[in-house]
Amino acid sequence: MKIKLSVLSALLLSCGLGHAASLPQGSGSFEFVVPQTQKKMEVFTYQPPGANTQTPVVFILAGLNRDADKYRDSWVENATKNKLIVIAPRYSEKDYPGNDGYNLGNLVNAKTGKVNPRGEWAFTVIDDLFANMQKQGITQQKQYYLFGNSAGCQFAHRMLTFVPEAKVKAAMCAAAGWWTMPDVENPWPYGLDGAPVDVTQKQLADYFAQPVLITVGSKDNDPYHPLLRRSYAAMTQGDSRLTRAETYFLTAKQKAKRYKVPFNWEFTTLKGVGHNGEKMSAYGAEQFAWFEQHGKFKTQEEQETKKEGGDESKNKDEATGEVN
What we know:
The longest helix has 19 residues, at 241-259. The chain is an alpha/beta fold. An 8-stranded mixed beta sheet has the order 1-2-4-3-5-6-7-8, sandwiched between helices. β5 (144-149), α5 and β6 form a beta-alpha-beta unit. The chain has 11 helices and 8 strands. The protein has helices at residues 7-10, 68-82, 98-101, 125-135, 151-162, 201-209, 232-235, 241-259, 277-294, 300-306, 312-320; strands at 26-33, 40-47, 57-61, 85-89, 144-149, 168-174, 212-217, 265-270. The two termini are 34 Å apart. The model is unreliable at 1-19 and 312-324 (pLDDT under 50).
């Protein structure tokens, strides 16, 4: 069921006047007007049966094709199973053009080359949208979960780098093609040296302290994948998404150690999975449901402990350190 509405005006749906707004049960969509720019954004939603204002909210960032509706659809089964409300905003090519507009967060005006005001960043839209949902009474949650796959992961990790104060409860970042390393040893956009907006050591410390799961498929290791960036700077991160994810995680871990600050990230590989958004989405729903119950992500060791003793696949997983 597709429902169009203006969140800023009167998101009332089946509610009477004066009552809190609500999302349609099942799949739907609405139009959100970004406060600072007045750009109109289509937002795809899924509300599982029995959901209410206390149900956890997950924001989904789509990959290269920006097909937010399809990503929403891929979450339906597992969002139902794990009782999660799904919010998938579509960043249009018109309003957020190219890699700069989406992957790099629209930090810079493509025409003038000047830094955009924060309210025009693609990164700040998520908190604006969540705040509006709170205001309308759609959710009483204080924070949200954040999921990004492929280009969506590029968006997510840079959002957390430049806006670590975002109301993110926990984030899962999966299978980015390349990363912005959290250091000033690498030039922008592969690192923070010369970035259009300065990132302080305090901001990095706040980012490192957040619960973040970096994950990638164990078979996402094709060095010749047609969508894998192969520039010199990208290749220094590794020759595949698998090795580049490992490089990013280890770099962040080393920086946190150097700064002597908490590091609350986890790293997992998803066994037998290549570059697959649907399988990453299913895994993300399970991880967020686990986090909601336990206050942490399920690590590979916990995944393996759950298996029955003596199982050959368990022994193999323990040897490789991969998640089934």
